[in-house]
Amino acid sequence: MAREVLNIGQIRIHSGSATREEAMKEAADLLESAGAVTSAYFDAMQQREQTVSTYMGNELAIPHGTNETKDAILDSALSFVRYDGGVDWGGEPVSFVVGIAGKGDEHLDILSQIALLFSEEEDVARLKAAQTPDELYALLASVNQ
User: What DSSP character marks residue 38?
Assistant: First the structure.
């Protein structure tokens, strides 16, 4: 990938909780602010969620659009939001909502990097313990490689 898919401006920490829809909207808005997607991407995320849950386990959800809505993606990027109060993701507890937009097939590389970050419980514990977006960014920097 030619540029970084995640920067400090695309990371948030909330002490409270959110609904699944609110969390998806924030993920989409951060991607849109980064210039990676159009305003249509939130609807694309909702369409995907109606088809199949984007809950991945280990308190992680990765909302993203459908193949039919690829035209809403302008560039590859991630948004990363931690909800310390949690999100009820279709009955599953989620603390981390990672919005993903992948140009072409780049989403596969990005997804594999995220999967690695969440594969070990101690890594998830470090992500939960980070106090600031800067600390989270340091732990997440591998997604830009």
Answer: -
Token pair in block for residue 41: 């991407």
Q: Residue 81: name the closest of 38, 140, 36 by CA.
A: 140
The answer to whether 90 and 20 have CB atoms below 8 angstroms apart is yes
Q: Three-class SS of residue 113? A: helix
Please indicate whether residue 64 is annotated as part of the active site: yes
Tokens at residue 38, please? Answer: 């159009």
Query: What is the Cα–Cα distance from 46 to 122, expressed in whole angstroms?
Result: 31
Active-site hit among 48, 64, 82, 107: 64
Q: What's the pTM?
A: 0.94
What are the start-end ranges of the E strands in the chain? 11-14, 17-18, 55-57, 60-61, 77-89, 92-101
Q: How far apart are CA 99 and CA 120, in angstroms?
A: 20
How would residue 1 be classed by pLDDT, with cut points 50, 70 and 90? very low
Q: What sign has the CA pseudo-torsion 63, 36, 17, 127? A: positive
Question: What's the CA gap between 98 and 88, in Å, rounded?
Answer: 15
The string of pLDDT tens digits covering residues 18-47 is 999 999 999 999 999 999 999 999 999 999
